[in-house]
Amino acid sequence: MNILMREIRKCMYGLIGTAADKRVTARFLFPSTFIGFQGHFPERPVLAGVCEIQAVKVILREWKKVPVAIKEIILAKFYSPVTCGEELLFECREREENGREAVVTTIVTGRGEKIAELRLRVSFEDEDTEGNNGGTA
User: Fold this and answer.
1) Which residues, at least 6 apart from 32, have a Cβ–Cβ distance to it below 8 Å?
2) Is 134 within the bounds of a domain?
3) Which domain holds residue 66?
């Protein structure tokens, strides 16, 4: 797991998932010291969208207890910027495509509004293949 993923993991809490209905939720609170705010932007920190995408990967890894690779970003719609100290709720729904791949739709909310909508094609990898996904992780 790379540095960004470890830092995102530290900001996650309240992971709740049910295998039966293929849904999982988690909350995040990114402090001002979070690496994803560095240089984005100095006067008014904004969470980089890639951090929200990577947060889904962290959620799935913790829920499934296996490494996850992002194969395709089908949809990444960001409605509102996120700054330091805002609590975010990620609600993920998995639609299995085969035994090793799934499409995961995630709604991110905070401040009582929709922050982002993400749809990712992911694969569940063996430990030794994590990170070898063509740079889309």
Assistant:
1) 45, 84, 85
2) no
3) 3-129
In a domain, 136, yes or no: no
Which pTM does this prediction carry? 0.88
Q: How deeply is 89 buried, as exposed, middle or buried, from its count of CB atoms within 10 A (0-12, 13-18, 19+)?
A: middle
Whether 137 is in a domain gets the answer no
Letter for the amino acid at 8? I
Q: Report the distance separating Cα 127 and Cα 114, nearest Å.
A: 34
Each residue's pLDDT tens digit, 114-137: 999 999 999 998 654 444 444 444
Note if the bond before 37 is cis, omega within 30 degrees: no
Of 48, 59, 72, 67, the C-alpha closest to 106 is: 59
Write the burial class of residue 105 (CB in 10 Å: 0-12 exposed, 13-18 middle, 19+ buried): middle
Total number of domains in the chain = 1
Give dist(CA 77, CA 66) in Å, integer: 27
DSSP tag of 127? G
